[in-house]
Amino acid sequence: MAKLVFIRHGQSEWNLSNQFTGWVDVDLSEEGVKQAQNAGKLLKEEGIEFDQAYTSVLTRAIKTLHYALEGCGQLWIPEMKTWRLNERHYGALQGLNKKETAEKYGDEQVHIWRRSYDTLPPLLKATDEGSAANDRRYANLDPRIIPGGENLKVTLERVIPFWEDEIAPKLLDGKNVIIAAHGNSLRALTKYIEDISDADIMDVEMATGEPVVYDMDKDLNIVSKKKLN
Questions:
Q1: In a designed cystine with 109, which of 33, 58, 67, 105 is the match (CB 3.0 to 4.6 A)?
Q2: What whole-number distance in Å separates Cα of residue 2 and Cα of residue 163?
Q3: 153: which strand partners?
């Protein structure tokens, strides 16, 4: 029976300052480092031996993966980074303070931008200074697929091809997989594998630095799920 583990990255510097982050590449805070290290301790206690690791191309997720794997003595396992596991792109909201944005646009509007399944945030243009089109890590992507902003629905649409092509085959082969990523990319995967409705996914939260462990049968149905904390 294959095991699948999700870890949302530890607290980032912009989580701490209450800013919309998205694809902006910020580091872990001191607390975030501790959370990632504790995740490694929990995984060691659980005794899971991993065969493959996946993460995004953003520092906070990469470091979380490395701290966690170091903590359970498995920093050596194969690792793949992909933009498809990035956080959802918050468009023109990126960098803004969440409280100040709510004061300007209203709590309800900000809640819709943050939690709605299919409502897009205000978009960035490719020519805007903060566009990912200007970031070298995305230089090999077709410019037409670099987003100016995403909702959870769009995030799911770009995560699922990676699940189908890369992650699912490993699980079908009986491999144990760990994914360190972001609140919304992991919510998207959670929605998919648990078959959660568009409405119910709005209430699903991913706790920072707390591993979620799935036991998957040979048909990739979930046999059991538990959170380590």
A1: 105
A2: 15
A3: none
Confidence (pLDDT) at 129: 84
Q: Could you read off the pLDDT of 13-65 as tens digits, one per residue? A: 999 999 999 999 999 999 999 999 999 999 999 999 999 999 999 999 999 99
Residue 7 φ/ψ, nearest 5 degrees: -130, 120
Cα gap 123→92, rounded to integer Å = 5
Side-chain half-sphere of 36: how many Cα atoms within 13 Å? Answer: 28
**Interatomic CA distance for residues 4 and 179, integer angstroms:** 8
Q: Is 142 helix (H, G, I), strand (E, B) or coil?
A: coil
Has 9 been annotated as catalytic?
yes
Question: How far apart, in whole angstroms, are the C-alpha atoms of residue 21 and residue 51?
Answer: 30
Compute the radius of gyration of the chain from its Cα atoms.
17
Active site residue 182: no
Alpha helices by DSSP H, listed for the chain, are 13-16, 30-46, 59-71, 98-105, 107-115, 152-162, 168-172, 183-194
- Cα distance between residue 125 and residue 38, in whole Å: 39
* Cβ atoms of residues 88 and 124 within 8 Å: no
Q: How many CB atoms lie within 10 A of CB 103?
A: 11
CA 168 to centroid of chain Cα atoms = 17
Which pLDDT tens digit goes with each residue over 124-143? 998 888 899 989 999 999 99
